[in-house]
Amino acid sequence: MTLITDLTSNSSRNADTDAPLITPLVERWSPRAYDPTAEVAPTVIRTILEAARWAPSANNVQPWRFIVARRGTAAFATVHDAMAGFNQAWADSAALLIVNVAETVDVEGKARPWARYDLGQAVAHLTVQAQHEGLHTHQMGGFDAAKIHAAFHLAPSLEVVSITAIGVLGDPDTLPAPLREREVAPRLRKPLAELVLAGE
């Protein structure tokens, strides 16, 4: 078993950027091959959640909530069981599964229209901090949200939006062939000219 507190990221997958970016953004990518023996130190888990806590939000309502499930726990098994099969095929090796939850309604029953956007910002902060700590993340949308909602007895005002797998890079050869091919495929992004709709 490997206890992870800090690692140097795999530089072979670094982004080929058109402008200089901070190192965690250059090194960030979304692997599926994780080291099934690696664990994340509690202090590091707290650090990446602290990064999420300091994300911006509309009116500072901070509508993000998280379910943190470490590999080997009942919570991890519950989250893993709610995943689609194509995610179950690899996510069991991740050290952590974090369920990202948005509080979409306030205590007075009023809708919070920006809750999902704000949660996304918090998860982005968490992702960059995790990369800085030598970890990798993979965001997932293939899961049964209702199953997770019921299993963790979440309030009706809470919406399960996504799951983040977090861990240490593993051996791509352990993946099924189709996933292995995606793991080593070139990283591509649309040019900025296609993304900026107006302005310079």
UniProtKB/TrEMBL annotation:
All copies of domain Nitroreductase, residue ranges: 26-72, 83-167
Signal peptide range in chain numbering: none
Gene3D superfamilies assigned: NADH Oxidase (3.40.109.10)
Cross-referenced InterPro entries: Nitroreductase, Nitroreductase-like
Keyword Oxidoreductase belongs to the record: yes
Key words, A-Z: Oxidoreductase
Family to which the UniProt record says this protein belongs: Belongs to the nitroreductase family.
Protein name as annotated: Nitroreductase
Source organism (scientific name): Agromyces ramosus
